[in-house]
Amino acid sequence: MEILRRRPIYVRDWERYLDIRFRLQNPYADFLIGAARLGLEGPLWPS
After folding, report:
1. Domain segments of the chain: what residues?
2. pLDDT tens across 14-47, in order?
3. What is the DSSP code (8-state) at residue 7?
4. Buried b vs exposed e over 20-47: b needs ≥16 C-beta within 10 Å?
5. pTM value > 0.70
6. How far apart are CA 32 and CA 46, in angstroms?
């Protein structure tokens, strides 16, 4: 985790990896990720 703090570029790579994993597991992934990237606020994940 320390390397993530010193090299922020890895954070983007990790987020991209999580996005891919999420897309494979969740049919709503494209909508949720797209909405989040558009900056929409609110509970995208049901509680």
Report:
1. 2-37
2. 778 877 777 777 667 677 777 777 766 555 555 4
3. -
4. eeeeeeeeeeeebbeeeeeeeeeeeeee
5. no
6. 11
